[in-house]
Amino acid sequence: MEGKNRGWIGSLKVTLSCVLCLVVVFAVSRVIPLNELGIRPRTLSGLPGILFSPLLHGDIGHLTANALSFLILGTVFFALVKEHPYIKIMHFVVLGGLGTWLIGRSSSNHIGLSGVIYGIMGYLMSFGLFEKRISAILISVVAFIFYGGALWGVLPGNPLMSWESHLCGFLSGIATAWMYSRKGG
Fold this sequence. Notes:
By secondary structure, this protein is an all-alpha fold. It contains 7 helices and no strands.
């Protein structure tokens, strides 16, 4: 569906499919210790976590919070981003994950989809600045109005929350918006 208009219903189907995948991985992780595949900063064994960590969640509250956030922001993202949305999501995963691997707290295991969610937020809040189209600017403003308060999550605070993943995800969204605005897509 690259470059095609999925519409809101199609976009909701995409995000619901992703959430179903998260639920399946969560159920399997209750039996098999998959959460060990998270991002372990600055270790070779932590590198695979860059790809696997968005699928892993510590408990049902963690999964629910990320699933609901992704349902909302992911649906908006897939409905509005016509060119290469899946590649852009992979940028959030890889760039945000690599950043977390580089700056994350030592002896920690970073798991969860929130880095990708913050990547979507960063993208939606910034692409209007780079595209310089009225419609894109309006989307960025609306995204900031609704989700600007979540930006506090990129700052250190709760020791059980990966602010590093939030920050790196958010920055990856901005970088991706900038990169694609320069490429024309």
